[in-house]
């Protein structure tokens, strides 16, 4: 069977929540009976996250095969109850290493090795190969592969990947490829209304040093040959229908495919919030897939019970974490991860 690919991209700012949204999409699809795998793309030249300073990049996650990878792969494993390997984490270093090894062996038969087509072909080959690898106890080939592209659209580091997925879309066809774009809809407290321009076009940010930085979103994504099939609007308060209609109009995305991803206190609420907006039905319609036969999938019910339990928790539990003073000053993301793991278990 043909694997369906879901590419998750981000705009406006990095760290917008693509990892949790990717995990939540996978959770919903798996809850409705689809076999899901995940790939995380980190567009840095390092081979893996093992040599990173945790102060700069955060803590690493160690997979069962001993590989040190980005924390998002830990979210994938916990949310979807799957087991991933080092091949589920693509880095620019790995891609270039693979291409250079092939060039040294003479596999390219003396051709000039270039970003296009050799690097882009290597990316597509890696993704399509890993998408076929079973990741759960059933041993079945995945039916859906969710690919999270790190960074933001417009970053020079991400451009080879964006071009590769443009080519991949052309090869597999739009019925087998869905682009989910996560964008910030900022709401200025002094103004009190959501500002849609960052999602429509771009967001211009000037810091105190006058450094001028352009974070590109939908228009830049379309300029690269990819059109968002779904828009995930990150915001801190519900969006009125007028704002959703405006985003739909200027982004050329159907109103029902503009999904509101509100800030939540408990990240395990995200799959439930997205499911309430008929995300699974939208994806199945895009892929021209029929729902699975009449089978009960109680997974989302368990998620609701978990979030309800957290919401109603009244007993205080003390968790001791041992570390140096520098650890506690710099490692706030790690502390959040520890708390989330305790909640999940």
UniProtKB/TrEMBL annotation:
<keyword id="KW-0665">Pyrimidine biosynthesis</keyword>
<dbReference type="GO" id="GO:0005524">
    <property type="term" value="F:ATP binding"/>
</dbReference>
<feature type="domain" description="CTP synthase N-terminal">
    <location>
        <begin position="4"/>
        <end position="289"/>
    </location>
</feature>
<dbReference type="InterPro" id="IPR027417">
    <property type="entry name" value="P-loop_NTPase"/>
</dbReference>
<dbReference type="GO" id="GO:0006241">
    <property type="term" value="P:CTP biosynthetic process"/>
</dbReference>
<comment type="similarity">
    <text>Belongs to the CTP synthase family.</text>
</comment>
<dbReference type="GO" id="GO:0005737">
    <property type="term" value="C:cytoplasm"/>
</dbReference>
<dbReference type="GO" id="GO:0097268">
    <property type="term" value="C:cytoophidium"/>
</dbReference>
<protein>
    <recommendedName>
        <fullName>CTP synthase (glutamine hydrolyzing)</fullName>
        <ecNumber>6.3.4.2</ecNumber>
    </recommendedName>
</protein>
<dbReference type="Pfam" id="PF06418">
    <property type="entry name" value="CTP_synth_N"/>
</dbReference>
<comment type="pathway">
    <text>Pyrimidine metabolism; CTP biosynthesis via de novo pathway; CTP from UDP: step 2/2.</text>
</comment>
<dbReference type="GO" id="GO:0042802">
    <property type="term" value="F:identical protein binding"/>
</dbReference>
<dbReference type="GO" id="GO:0019856">
    <property type="term" value="P:pyrimidine nucleobase biosynthetic process"/>
</dbReference>
<keyword id="KW-0547">Nucleotide-binding</keyword>
<dbReference type="InterPro" id="IPR017456">
    <property type="entry name" value="CTP_synthase_N"/>
</dbReference>
<keyword id="KW-0436">Ligase</keyword>
<dbReference type="GO" id="GO:0003883">
    <property type="term" value="F:CTP synthase activity"/>
</dbReference>
<keyword id="KW-0067">ATP-binding</keyword>
<keyword id="KW-0315">Glutamine amidotransferase</keyword>
<dbReference type="InterPro" id="IPR004468">
    <property type="entry name" value="CTP_synthase"/>
</dbReference>
């Amino acid at each position: 069977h043909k694997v369906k690919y879901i590419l998750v991209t981000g705009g406006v700012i990095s760290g917008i929540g693509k990892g949790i949204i990717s995990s939540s999409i996978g959770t919903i699809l798996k809850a409705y009976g689809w076999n899901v795998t995940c790939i995380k793309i980190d567009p840095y030249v390092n081979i893996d996250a093992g040599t990173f300073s945790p102060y700069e990049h955060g803590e690493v996650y160690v997979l069962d095969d001993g590989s040190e990878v980005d924390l998002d792969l830990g979210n994938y494993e916990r949310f979807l109850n799957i087991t991933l390997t080092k091949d589920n984490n693509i880095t620019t270093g790995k891609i270039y290493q693979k291409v250079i090894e092939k060039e040294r062996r003479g596999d390219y038969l003396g051709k000039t090795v270039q970003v296009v087509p050799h690097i882009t072909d290597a990316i597509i080959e890696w993704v399509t190969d890993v998408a076929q690898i079973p990741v759960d106890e059933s041993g079945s080939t995945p039916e859906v592969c969710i690919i999270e592209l790190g960074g933001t659209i417009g970053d020079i580091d991400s451009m080879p990947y964006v071009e590769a997925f443009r080519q991949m879309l052309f090869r597999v066809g739009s019925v087998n490829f869905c682009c989910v774009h996560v964008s910030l809809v900022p709401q200025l407290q002094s103004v009190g209304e959501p500002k849609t321009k960052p999602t429509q076009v771009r967001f211009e940010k000037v810091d105190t040093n006058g450094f001028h930085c352009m974070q590109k979103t939908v228009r830049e994504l379309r300029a690269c040959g990819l059109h968002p099939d779904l828009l995930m609007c990150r915001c801190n308060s519900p969006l009125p229908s007028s704002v959703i209609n405006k985003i739909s109009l200027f982004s050329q995305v159907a109103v029902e495919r503009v999904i509101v991803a509100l800030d939540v206190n408990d990240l395990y609420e995200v799959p439930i919030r997205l499911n309430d907006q008929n995300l699974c039905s939208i994806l199945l319609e895009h892929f021209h897939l029929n729902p699975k036969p009449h089978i009960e999938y109680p997974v989302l019910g368990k998620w609701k019970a978990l979030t309800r339990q957290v919401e109603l928790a009244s007993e205080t539990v003390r968790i001791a974490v041992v570390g140096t003073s520098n650890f506690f000053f710099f490692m706030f993301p790690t502390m959040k991860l520890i708390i989330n793991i305790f909640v999940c278990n």
